[in-house]
Design a protein that fits this description.
single chain, 154 residues, alpha+beta, Aminopeptidase, 8-stranded mixed sheet, 33% strand, globular
Length: 154
């Protein structure tokens, strides 16, 4: 049997009832309600919800600027069994690329937590380090990363 695929959509009112947990560097810092209220396409603020097998398995938040789409975070729902092995982060990243193309922005930008697995994930998604690491009192060491989009939409 083939595994279920991940789809990405905008937030819906029923998402307020979703149980969403994160681990790693986002543990205790992730605000599900804030993600849902952040979405305002007219103001260039986007929240993306990933689903698989009828469950919310991941989420991302991004803000559009004239030359780039800043990915503020990507998170997998640690409480979801459907998320395991489904490449949730990749599906959310593909959605961010499509969004950036639709907005006409040539770059994706993010600041990765200081975690070798996260850095490897983003590098595998085509990001390169863009400058020296930064220190933030709340987040710790952050690595600026940037991805130039290819010459045409995905």
């Amino acid at each position: 049997m083939e595994p279920a695929s991940v789809t990405v959509r905008w937030p819906q009112p029923a998402d307020r009832e979703v149980h969403f947990e994160v681990g790693g560097g986002l543990f205790g810092r992730f605000d599900w309600a804030g993600l849902l209220t952040h979405h305002d396409a007219e103001r260039g603020r986007f929240s993306m919800i990933a689903e698989c097998a009828g469950e919310v398995v991941g989420a991302a938040r991004a803000t559009a600027y004239p030359d780039e789409l800043e990915i503020e975070f990507l998170a997998r729902n640690a409480s979801s069994r459907a998320a395991r092995g489904q490449r949730v982060g990749h599906a959310l990243m593909e959605a961010a690329v499509s969004l950036a193309w639709g907005l006409g922005t040539p770059f994706l930008m993010l600041e990765s937590l200081d975690d070798p697995a996260l850095l490897a994930f983003y590098e595998g998604e085509g990001f390169v380090r863009a400058g020296s690491p930064l220190f933030d009192a709340y987040w710790g060491t952050l690595h600026p990363m940037r991805r130039r989009l290819a010459s045409g939409p995905p």
